[in-house]
Amino acid sequence: MGIWQDLKKPFLILAPMEGVTDIMFRQVVARAGRPDLFFTEFTNVSSYASEKGRANALERLEVAPTDAPIIAQIWGKNPEHFSETCTALSSLGFSGVDLNFGCPDKHVNKAGGGAAMIKTPELAVECLRNATKSTDLPVSVKTRLGWSQPEEYKEWLPVLLNEHPAALTVHLRTKKEMSKVPAHYELISEIIKLRDELSPETKLIINGDIRDKAHALELYEKYPEVDGFMIGRGVFQNPYCFTDHVPTQEELMDLLKLHLDLYEEQSKKHYVSYEPLKHFFKIYINNFPGAKELRAKLMETHSVEEAREVIRLSA
Q: Which domains, ranges and CATH numbers included, belong to the chain?
């Protein structure tokens, strides 16, 4: 069980989010107040297995000293590629491997990965078994209730639990629902029952609409059998969401400056596009007089130097 056995209930995890939870943003969150466990963005096992794509895969798997403990999340549909990637991950400093069987992205699903695995349970099991036998790290799974109907969890989750993964994270929505409807908290008790019956040693993590630490503790009081909670979009509302701290405007601005510094440092190692960095500005610049105007000016910048100058002139 490794890291999963060491975590104390209820543990908190920053959800892996494509284009968000990269090595830079994880360091920002660590400065604000780190979760008990980080996940990487997901990496395509077929990219790692390809000589052409391996360099990019390794960039996505890069970790910072403040990341540990961290889980490497991977996706794909080729069982042999899962084996090859998991064998390599054992020596890259990760505390575990997580298989993404829940991503709703249409491109990922078209390629047969992510939530598409829900429609190919036999292939999902083969990939999970190949991953497990190819590494000494604990292997976990992150998934959704089903493809189109919440009731699909009754058939889908037992497929995974019968393989006894070290941990199972359930996003309480279907692929079709995306994040357009409230998470189905009403199903938590039934999911707990399934876990207890089929694989009581598997750690159960709940994901979906969890705002912050206080909210997670409220849910834990109601469902003490749950082992941990994963926060995703809540970090956009408050990067201090894993703590009890209410940040000041100055503290949030300091986090933005740190993010800019980290971007600059990362861009010296390899090419990093500046445009995606703009998606983070609203996290730090919000709910204070002049925030809207400052964000608008920052959105017009094209470099860290320009952003720093805008911030300096606004002080």
A: 3-237 (3.20.20.70), 249-314 (no CATH)
- Asked if the peptide bond before residue 69 counts as cis, ω within 30 degrees of 0, the response is yes
Token pair belonging to 135: 């590494």
Q: From 18, 23, 14, 19, select the one nearest 63 (Cα to Cα).
A: 23
Closest CA to 195 of 229, 159, 161: 161
Three-class SS of residue 299?
Answer: helix
Cα–Cα distance measured from residue 79 to residue 134, given in angstroms and rounded to the nearest whole number: 11
CA angle 295, 299, 304 (to 5 degrees): 105
* CA 262 from centre of chain: 20
pLDDT in tens, 31-54: 999 999 999 999 999 999 998 889
Identify residue 266 by its one-letter amino acid code.
Q
Q: Say how far apart CA 309 and CA 315 lie, in whole Å.
A: 10
pLDDT over 80 at 315, yes or no: no
Q: Taking Cα atoms as reference points, which of 241, 238, 270, 262 lies closest to residue 252? A: 238
269: pLDDT strictly greater than 80: yes
Determine the Cα–Cα distance for residues 83 and 202; give it in Å rounded to an integer: 22
Distance CA 43, CA 98 (A): 10
Q: Which stretches does DSSP call E strand in the chain?
A: 11-14, 38-39, 43-44, 70-75, 96-101, 139-144, 167-171, 203-207, 228-231
Q: Assess whether 103 carries a catalytic annotation.
A: yes
pLDDT in tens, 113-146: 999 999 999 999 999 999 999 999 999 999 999 9
Q: How far apart are CA 136 and CA 23, in angstroms?
A: 24
Pull the structure tokens for residue 126: 């083969």
CA angle 193, 198, 203 (to 5 degrees): 75
State the catalytic residue, choosing from 86, 103, 127, 241. 103
Give the span between the Cα atoms of 108 and 70, in whole angstroms: 23
